[in-house]
Write a structure and sequence with these properties.
Blueprint: H1 2-6, E1 11-16, H2 20-32, E2 36-42, H3 48-55, E3 59-64, H4 69-79, E4 86-91, H5 96-105, E5 109-112, H6 117-129, E6 137-138, E7 143-144, E8 152-153, H7 158-168, H8 173-180, H9 184-198, H10 203-212, H11 218-222
Parallel strand pairs: 1-2, 1-3, 3-4, 4-5, 5-6
Antiparallel strand pairs: 7-8
């Protein structure tokens, strides 16, 4: 489906949000930017797998609330389709840990509801026309944090969070690379990106900050055990 959309056919989008006015607004936004067609809108994610099968959209824009269990089930059903659409999460929930779980369930991109309309348009286009298997976008380019009054801060991608969690568990760069099927150079690059975004210089500082920012829980870190030494990069 993405190949056809890339050759000039409009990107077909299915919307799922429980507010009718918000769905109508999203439909207008997507249509006004051109190259997109909203094929249907539904009030909840439970209808998404059935309509995705019947209408074969290129992308699904789905709302997620604080409890994402039903959303993960819907994502699993959508991803099991023979030619699944890409799923863009649009939500007021802005916890990176929450977003990471949705990424693991098959979401292609995440955009906070506080973002400009252009972020959603860009996320849909990137999800459909971008390469398969790329890093999940977290909040477009930036996401507002309201817990510590530090303004807008860049957040890690889902892959960077994955690398950071393994680093916080004490795995060496080599073991992280092996576990995630990456090169060591890529692991070092992801860690360097995380350190820059967090304003830290070491794994121990990064792990401490990740806990403070609710990116991980202590249980998630200790679940993997300690398997290596604290490294600079």
């Amino acid at each position: 489906m993405a190949e056809e959309a890339g050759r000039g056919r409009p990107i077909r989008v299915l919307l799922a949000d429980d507010h009718a006015m918000f769905r109508q607004g999203l439909a207008w936004i997507l249509a006004s930017h051109g190259g997109m067609e909203v094929v249907a809108g539904v009030p909840n994610g439970a209808e998404v797998p059935r309509l995705a099968r019947e209408l074969a959209p290129d992308a699904v824009v789905m709302e997620v609330r604080a409890t994402a269990e039903g959303t993960r089930e819907a994502l699993g059903a959508v991803r099991s389709l023979p030619d699944p659409p890409r799923v863009v999460i649009c939500s007021a929930v802005q916890s990176p840990r929450h977003v990471g779980k949705l990424a693991g369930a098959g979401a292609s991109a995440y955009v906070p509801k506080t973002s400009p309309a252009e972020n959603l348009v860009a996320a849909v286009r990137a999800a459909v026309l971008g390469p398969e298997g790329g890093d999940t976008m977290v909040g477009g380019q930036r996401m507002v944090r309201g817990d510590r009054g530090e303004g807008d801060l860049p957040l890690p991608s889902a892959r960077e969070l994955e690398v950071l969690l393994l680093a916080a568990r004490g795995l060496s760069n080599g073991r992280i690379a092996s576990s995630l099927h990456l090169s060591e150079a890529t692991v070092k690059r992801h860690l360097a990106n995380v350190y820059e975004k967090m304003g830290v210089n070491s794994r121990s500082e990064a792990a401490r900050e990740a806990l403070l920012r609710d990116w991980f829980t202590a249980e998630e870190i200790t679940a993997g055990g300690a398997n290596g030494e604290d490294e600079a990069g």
